[in-house]
Amino acid sequence: MFCKQVRRNAAKNRKGNGLFFGSLVIAIVAFYTLLSLGEQDVMRYLATIESDAVGKLMMMLPAVYAVSLFFVFFLVYFACKYQTDSRKREFGLYLMLGMKRSRLFFMLFAETLWSSLISLLTGIPIALFLTEGISLATAKIVGLGIIGHHFSFSPDAMLWTVCGFILVQLLSMLVICMNLVKAETAEFFRSGSEKKQAPLSGVRSTACFTLGTGLLIAAYYLGIFQMHSLRMAVMLAVIVCGILGTFLLYRGLGGFLGQYIRRKSPNAAGLKTFTARQVQENVLSQHKSLAISSLLLLMALSCISYGISMGFGRSGSRRSVDFSLFGTETEMNAVLEKNDIDEMVEDSYPLYLSAVKDGYDRDEEKAFDTGEFVKALRTVEDSDNIIENLHIEYVIGESSYNRILKNMGKEELKLADHETAIYTSMGNDGDFGSILTKAISGGISIGIDGVNYSIRPTLCMDNVVADRAITLYMALVVPDELFTKLASEPEAYCRNVNLKDEIVDNTGLMQAIQKMDAMLEDTGIEYDSYLGGIGRNLFYTVAASYLTIYLGVLFWLIANTVIGLKYLISQRQTKHRYETLTMLGADTPAMCRSVKKQIGIYFVLVLSTALVSSAAAIFTMFRSFTKLPVGTSVSTVALISAIALVIFAAVEIVYIGIVKRTASREVSRIEITNRR
Amino acid sequence: MNTQNQILQVESLSKIYGKGDNRTQALKGITFDVLEGEFLGIMGASGSGKTTLLNCIATMLKPTSGKIVLRGQDISGFHGGKLADYRGREIGYLFQEFELLDNLTARENITLPLALHGITAKQAEGDISALASMLDITAVLDKFPSQMSGGQKQRVAAARALISDPDIVLADEPTGALDSKNSKMLMDKLSSINIGQNKTIMMVTHDANAASYCSRILFIQDGYIFHELRRNRQAESTSAFYERIVTVMAQLGGGSANVL
Questions:
Q1: Chain A closest CA to B175's CA: distance in Å?
Q2: Model ipTM?
């Protein structure tokens, strides 16, 4: 009998409240997605080449998991509270019929466990499906190809998901039951705790609102204009001003709305005043939840933007060289002539890269005359550091650089007489690339051995060797004759090898390089590979974008759930108002319209602050510590941002729609015939 | 009886709750008229059917059979916009627990029935001021219900019931949640509105004191009208009428234990 009742109640909860059940399933998906990170294709691959870094990331996961547990607790807590609030009368009845409180709570816990089980059975398959999707998508984005993909299931992740979820569920229930223990039996029969409309003093609310707005503007200003110095004090000031400003803004917003309503209500007809007062009441009584939700949304949007830009920025660099071989000419020829290796190679060529002969770099007389270059740099903002460290130590032969460009499908340099080009492999680090580009764009020249060479106004940045770990701060791409004259070692630095495109296309880059890797390994020759070089890079891409996007989505879900459920709880508590309205002549469609409008305004109040703050935060981010790589197409970035924004808006609209439907359904069910 | 003055006609009204073996007949074919300007009281024991009767007239319940005709229109056939109009314009309803919306000020509460029909507070400013001064609530017009006393709340509720100038005011135990001082004040105000403005009021009550302000009282028992008391306001004081009510209650019901 007891078990049957528990099952029946749990089923009723699920059917009657999709939001509740949905929140539970989301919690499960969130846990499993995070915990199964180690099983993702990209992570498995990275573990083979960067096991230390992956190991460190895996050690970080429990901390992220704990943070997730903390936030998911609120999601589940609000969902459970909404559910139990609507059943208070039923609980009161059980008590009046002689059920012991302990038995009632036991029943609630049993229902919770049963719901957990059903949610897990629904959530785990969704989570598996989602993680597989993410795994495939990430592999595709970072260029690993999907050939090596195989279905992954992580028993550990599953175990921790189940444990974490049940723990969070039971903990939420415990907190709710503790509140119920304190309640008098009569309280169970009240339709809801009637909130008193607090008459907030006009001066106080205006002061809060103004101060909040001021602090937020201060935070935006400090963030956008001062944050690039990355000083701790500035960062702290931005955080404190932002958080305090948001809380104060919502604290004062209720009073502000009240003044507005008072001004407008004499001319309002229909349910306008009622709608506005309902919104005001929610803002007054839930200003803390609104502020928290708004901040969560801000964190969500910032995390997602950061994640996308990290993934985008780092995966954006194109592969120029697949392998670089080191050794004598004979050794390398012997290796490349091997049948199986030869079959895979599209092109191989010597790379002429060398340090500048003694004297050219430092010697006063022979030294490069960079006077004009320095002068041009001085006209560019934030270039002091570059000017101080300006020295050209390396030269690259034009012919080998042209081969690189040709293999990448780019146009060759074709330097004219007395022309050189500036090369750097660090163009994507901070502002370095953009400052150099600005300096050379005006057309400058450099003196070498007393002769003036004009500098090509475009910066060369394509990697000259396979290993990305090898970086060149600044070098000159010079015609081959000049290279022979300037180079301290005029022989080839290494031999670059590019794999055949059809092999890469057919088997996937990862497979092709791994195959070649194995063959080169057998020959004993010294070499670097593209994938080995970008291993660390890839790791940062995946770890940073994956974790931040994950946290972003989690914050986003929780913020929405908090706003939605808080509204629905308060509507249920003030249900009798709709009964009174019906008696006063309001029809159901008008009340449903009012409810929908209330929800719309309520969400807009949270979203608007979050969006403005996010715009400032994202702007700050790209101005100070996250830079998009130079050469990244603005239209691509704009397109990705637009897609992300459209997805965000679409999800919000769908979610708001669900809340509106739920609330309207409740209002439509109101029957005044139930009154005595 | 002067049929020209009839504002409400209730004919053979019956209401059955439940189905099959669980049927309970709350009203068993009640017939009566309410004249314009009358202050009609409905009294009876718990479960006698008096609230069911009031709720049928207020369209909160649908009668099983019979007719309710207000100013020549059968209200049992109303639904949708016509029903909302009837509730908002034709009747004013005074609840025992006031039922003010606690997040609206007194002024906003009072103008709500008008706003629902497209009339703004500004347009009705004159009516609001007149009603507020009549009911002595001018000082609380811009306050929220939580800042008012119970008596003030019920008088604000009365102003809300009267603002749309309804044909009839239905009051369900309006003094039920008030102390004797506030009850008396409310009944004095309702009585003066009834006499001064010729407003028709129909009130369900347990309270003999409140009932003594009425011009006629119908006693209901087990779904039937079983007694009627009339009062000649010019000739009989409220205290004398009160004595008669109490006597009838004692004689007919065998004491308050049965009647109340």
A1: 16
A2: 0.77
